[in-house]
């Protein structure tokens, strides 16, 4: 159990019958029933800079926050800014660039930013409160996985390693540009395609890495999982950078945290294990698809320009356990 999970388990249980999803399942957003055919999906996310360019930071943070709405099968309605910035640097234009980057992604998603809240803080931080809507029957949650479901990932791993290398000035401009493009890409199209296949179980892959988020899904669904390491898409430079030691502390904590629930085949080397636990920023979606339709779903995702792949399946193994082959 992660340190955050240990804190969250002390929350008072939600007894409101209109609360469809709360913190107990580790899902990406809270869901509240408005009517028989309408449910509100609400999340928030913010963090410090992962790149030097202010506008790119704003774009990445906004795409990351909106991902929670897409992961739940919902359409975003509107957002609010969450912004921390040092007052003494307000005249530099950086704050405006960060906010402009967030607004750019919100426009791309088709949602207005209606306002927000800002504070004076020595370290800049930015993100969104994101609000969406979904029909309750089309909700995508951690708890709806079934044995045999095929696991499909829509973005490659390795962003945590690359952003760590960026902070250490250890990557070239082309690698930075490619990483920024991936992080600022909305998960809207992946979610739209998944909805057309009536996917009901899934999550997004962010700070806890693929293994951490998969374990949460498995626990909520009462399932285990089998993961094929060779089939998991990884950014081309990530393995080399990991071998050079550019591994974030969060990634190492992730790997340590899942170790008691994860068994690795002998041929899965240490760098692969690190990348499977790599802490992602604005990562992809992880879907549980009907095995009869999984191949077609992957084909449609790839046709839409996504580096999607089928990477494993849910099993009847112990809830929350993962076997990496």
* Beta strands, count: 13
Radius of gyration: 19 Å
| N-to-C series of helices and strands | HEEEHEHEEEHHHEHEHHEHEHEE
- Compute the number of helices: 11
Structural class: alpha+beta
CATH superfamily of the largest domain: PurM-like C-terminal domain
The helix fraction, in percent, is: 25-40%
Low-confidence segments, ≥5 residues, pLDDT <50? Answer: none
Describe this structure in words.
This protein has 325 residues and is of the alpha+beta class. The protein has two domains: 3-137, PurM-like, N-terminal domain (60s Ribosomal Protein L30, Chain: A, 2-Layer Sandwich); 141-324, PurM-like C-terminal domain (Phosphoribosyl-aminoimidazole Synthetase, Chain A, domain 2). It is 35% helix and 24% strand. The chain contains eleven helices and 13 strands. The protein has helices at 3-8, 54-71, 94-109, 159-167, 173-183, 188-196, 209-221, 238-243, 249-258, 270-276, 294-303, and strands at 19-21, 30-35, 38-47, 75-85, 113-120, 125-134, 150-153, 201-204, 224-227, 262-264, 285-289, 309-315, 322-324. Strands 8-11-7-12-9-13-10 form a seven-stranded mixed sheet, with helices on both faces. A six-stranded mixed sheet has the order 1-2-3-6-4-5, with helices on one face. Helix 2 packs parallel to helix 3 (94-109). It starts with a helix and ends with a strand.
Furnish the topology, listing elements before pairings.
Blueprint (H helix, E strand, L loop, with lengths): L2 H6 L10 E3 L8 E6 L2 E10 L6 H18 L3 E11 L8 H16 L3 E8 L4 E10 L15 E4 L5 H9 L5 H11 L4 H9 L4 E4 L4 H13 L2 E4 L10 H6 L5 H10 L3 E3 L5 H7 L8 E5 L4 H10 L5 E7 L6 E3 L1
Parallel strand pairs: 4-5, 9-13, 10-13
Antiparallel strand pairs: 1-2, 2-3, 3-6, 4-6, 7-11, 7-12, 8-11, 9-12
Helix pairs in contact: 2-3, 4-5, 7-9
């Amino acid at each position: 159990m992660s340190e955050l999970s240990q804190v969250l388990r002390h929350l008072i249980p939600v007894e409101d019958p209109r609360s469809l999803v709360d913190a107990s399942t580790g899902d990406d957003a809270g869901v509240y029933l408005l009517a028989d055919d309408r449910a509100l999906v609400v999340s928030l996310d913010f963090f410090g800079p992962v790149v030097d360019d202010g506008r790119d930071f704003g774009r990445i943070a906004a795409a990351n926050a909106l991902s929670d709405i897409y992961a739940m099968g919902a359409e975003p309605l509107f957002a609010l800014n969450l912004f921390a910035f040092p007052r003494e640097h307000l005249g530099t234009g950086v704050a405006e660039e960060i906010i402009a980057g967030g607004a750019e992604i919100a426009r791309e998603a088709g949602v207005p930013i209606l306002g927000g809240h800002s504070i004076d803080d020595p370290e800049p931080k930015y993100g969104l409160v994101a609000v969406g809507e979904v029909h309750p029957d089309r909700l995508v949650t951690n708890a709806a996985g079934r044995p045999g479901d095929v696991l499909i990932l829509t973005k490659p791993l390795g962003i945590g390693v690359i952003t760590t290398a960026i902070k250490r000035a250890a990557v070239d401009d082309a690698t930075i540009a490619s990483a920024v493009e991936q992080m600022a890409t909305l998960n809207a199209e992946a979610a739209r395609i998944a909805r057309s296949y009536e996917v009901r179980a899934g999550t997004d892959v962010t700070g806890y890495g693929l293994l951490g988020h998969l374990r949460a899904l498995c626990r909520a669904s009462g399932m285990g999982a089998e993961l094929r390491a060779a089939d998991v898409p990884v950014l081309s430079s990530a393995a080399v950078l990991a071998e050079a030691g550019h591994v974030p502390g969060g990634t190492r904590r992730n790997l340590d945290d899942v170790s008691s629930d994860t068994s690795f085949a002998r041929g899965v080397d240490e760098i692969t294990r690190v990348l499977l636990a790599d802490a992602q920023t604005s990562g992809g979606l992880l879907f549980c698809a009907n095995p009869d339709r999984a191949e077609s779903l992957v084909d449609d995702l790839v046709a839409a320009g996504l580096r999607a792949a089928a990477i494993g399946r849910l099993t009847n193994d112990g809830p929350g356990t993962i076997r990496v082959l």
